[in-house]
């Protein structure tokens, strides 16, 4: 029940109608019986600064930021964490001592299923990341935190790849990064213990497509993990190919849940976050079978 005492959390983006964060965050808040509500706020790019001023004036405790605000919000914050600085993007903002503090929980969300489920020496791992956009930055930072021996980012534009590589030169985290054009993928796949799709290929309107063909997927080592940041359809064509090749798969739904849980920990500092409740709320919303 929302009253005048209910504290405000939310997410900003434009557009924001598609966001699943309110579904899972409000499910968690209700389960914890806390007097908070999580609201989607449609904020156009030119209104970002005034939105932060308005949030401060009405006592918003914290909020998530999604496209197109993850990068442009940086200069409007008083402080950002080292991981957000490394990624060059903020997705979680909290209010502390009359200041907006930004961090990035996408990295923690990406890492969670890898660290909790798979017991392996990541220092012996070669990671191959498909795509060199904003999502790839969080994945590269996550792979660096894991301690991967080598990280390859694969893209189709040589200039953008070089810009991507150079952007990490002054990073606060050590990144053993190399970039490769798509034509060299056949040489990289046999080494790839971790293959991550950060491209939009496989989601609507390209839901029937994959960034790889089935034969290419067969070149992965037997112990490889194929990780797709896309969570609908479930499984994506990319992960179907991996399953056919006998490769372990992870989809993007768990990253979505875990980055949201990490944000709740920052804002609410609960003893525990009901991750299962958050996950089940998304399964129901998306019409998936558990």
UniProtKB/TrEMBL annotation:
EC number(s) from the headed UniProt entry: 1.1.1.25
Source species, domain of life: Bacteria
Name of this chain's protein: Shikimate dehydrogenase (NADP(+))
Residues that, per the record, bind NADP(+): 131-135, 229, 252
Calcium listed as a keyword: no
HAMAP family in UniProt: Shikimate_DH_AroE
Positions of the SDH C-terminal domain: 252-282
CDD domains for this protein: NAD_bind_Shikimate_DH
InterPro entries in the record: Aminoacid_DH-like_N_sf, NAD(P)-bd_dom_sf, SDH_C, Shikimate_DH, Shikimate_DH-bd_N, Shikimate_DH_fam
Active site feature: 70 (proton acceptor)
Gene for this chain: aroE
SUPFAM superfamilies according to UniProt: Aminoacid dehydrogenase-like, N-terminal domain (SSF53223), NAD(P)-binding Rossmann-fold domains (SSF51735)
Annotated function: Involved in the biosynthesis of the chorismate, which leads to the biosynthesis of aromatic amino acids. Catalyzes the reversible NADPH linked reduction of 3-dehydroshikimate (DHSA) to yield shikimate (SA).
Catalytic reaction(s) noted: shikimate + NADP(+) = 3-dehydroshikimate + NADPH + H(+)
Extent of the signal sequence: none
Keywords: Amino-acid biosynthesis, Aromatic amino acid biosynthesis, NADP, Oxidoreductase
Family: Belongs to the shikimate dehydrogenase family.
């Amino acid at each position: 029940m929302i009253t005048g005492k209910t504290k405000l959390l939310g997410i900003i983006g434009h557009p924001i109608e598609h966001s699943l964060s309110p579904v899972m965050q409000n499910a968690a808040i209700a389960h914890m019986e806390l007097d908070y509500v999580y609201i989607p706020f449609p904020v156009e790019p030119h209104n970002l600064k005034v939105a932060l001023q308005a949030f401060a004036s009405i006592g918003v405790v914290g909020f998530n930021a999604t496209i197109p605000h993850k990068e442009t919000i940086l200069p409007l914050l008083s402080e950002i964490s080292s991981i957000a600085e490394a990624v060059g993007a903020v997705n979680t903002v909290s209010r502390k001592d009359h200041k907006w503090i930004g961090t990035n929980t996408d990295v923690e969300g990406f890492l969670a299923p890898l660290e909790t489920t798979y017991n392996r020496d990541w220092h012996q791992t070669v990671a191959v990341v498909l795509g060199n956009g904003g999502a790839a930055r969080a994945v590269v930072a996550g792979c660096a935190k894991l301690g991967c021996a080598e990280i390859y980012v694969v893209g189709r534009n040589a200039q953008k790849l070089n810009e991507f590589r150079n952007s990490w030169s002054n990073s606060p985290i050590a990144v053993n990064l190399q970039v490769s054009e798509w034509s060299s993928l056949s040489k990289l796949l046999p080494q790839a213990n971790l293959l991550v799709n950060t491209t939009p290929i496989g989601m609507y309107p390209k839901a029937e497509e994959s960034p790889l063909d089935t034969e290419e997927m067969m070149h992965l080592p037997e112990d490889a993990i194929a990780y797709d940041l896309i969570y609908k359809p479930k499984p994506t064509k990319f992960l179907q190919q991996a399953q056919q090749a006998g490769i372990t798969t992870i989809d993007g739904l768990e990253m979505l849940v875990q980055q949201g849980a990490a944000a709740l920990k920052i804002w609410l500092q609960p003893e525990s976050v009901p991750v299962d409740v958050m996950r089940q709320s998304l399964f129901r919303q998306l019409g998936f079978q558990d």
